[in-house]
Amino acid sequence: MRRLFRWAFRLALALVVLAIVCAAAAILLADTLARELLIRRLRAATGMEAKVAEVHIGILSPTMSIEGLKLYNSADFGGSLCLDMPEVHLEYDPSALRSRKLHLTLLRFDLKELSIMQDKQGRKNFEAPRRNGQPSTQRRTSPGARWKFVSIDVLNASLGKFRMTSQASGRGEEIDFSVKNQILRNVKSWDDLAPLGLSALSRGQASSTGESSVDLSAMVDSLLKAP
Questions:
Q1: DSSP run (H or E) holding 125
Q2: Which of 100, 187, 90 is nearest to 145 (CA)?
Q3: Could you tell me the CA-to-CA distances from 23 to 17, 55, 96, 201, 206 in Å, in that order?
Q4: Residues 6 or more apart from 138 whose CB is under 8 A from it?
Q5: Are strands 101-118 and 49-57 parallel, antiparallel or unpaired?
Q6: Of 111, 193, 116, 104, residue with least CA distance to 152
Q7: What angle (nearest 5°) sits at the alpha carbon of residue 173, between those of residues 169 and 179?
Q8: Which pLDDT belongs to residue 139?
Q9: What pLDDT, on a 0 to 100 scale, did the predictor assign at position 142?
Q10: How high is the pLDDT of residue 180?
Q11: Which residues of the chain fall below pLDDT 70?
């Protein structure tokens, strides 16, 4: 009887260990698949080389974290670093998600660097998928399949350097916003981000190079209006 008990105990222990190993493998596989999918989507949407260090999806909790997100300009724009986001972390409402509604209970991101470039023909580096009149490779969805943004309960934003460069004039502008962990609550529209913009402008330190000016407002406006 004692030998039978030991055998059963060892078998149960082995099954528990196997279950833990399988669960860990499934989690790692989910993270790997999510990372590869994110990279493909970013490349298709921006026409840039995308790199992502890690993606973590909460299996038992509605969370997702992205670490080491970087976008690199195409060869036409020198292949330089375009976007550097060390961290994006979000927590979402599962019930809203099932209704194709985006309700984030928490969004935390660290935008370390963003670079907007304009070539001699006036094209922006973010317009690569639409060059030569070609539409973006992103799928078009029917109106009924679109997601509806609801709100972000808590937004924790960090903003670093924002660069704008014109290849035609050879002039560049750089603003270091130095915003760390700016907290906004109940964000439902662009207007609710006004405190973040005011904080960035009040702390921003600008520097420039070259002789001709870059139309910063036009470049930022075109970026915000890009699909």
A1: none
A2: 100
A3: 10, 17, 27, 47, 50
A4: 41, 44, 45, 129
A5: unpaired
A6: 104
A7: 160
A8: 46
A9: 43
A10: 92
A11: 1-28, 128-145, 206-227
pLDDT in tens, 51-103: 999 999 887 889 999 999 999 988 888 888 989 999 999 999 999 888 888 99
Q: What residue ranges in the chain does DSSP mark as E strands?
A: 49-57, 63-72, 81-92, 101-118, 148-166, 172-187, 205-209
pTM of the model: 0.74
Edge to edge, the sheet with strand 101-118 lists 49-57, 63-72, 81-92, 101-118, 148-166, 172-187, 205-209
**Cα gap 80→73, rounded to integer Å:** 5
* Residue 108 token pair: 């935390």
For 3, the token pair is: 């030998």
Amino acid residing at 172: G
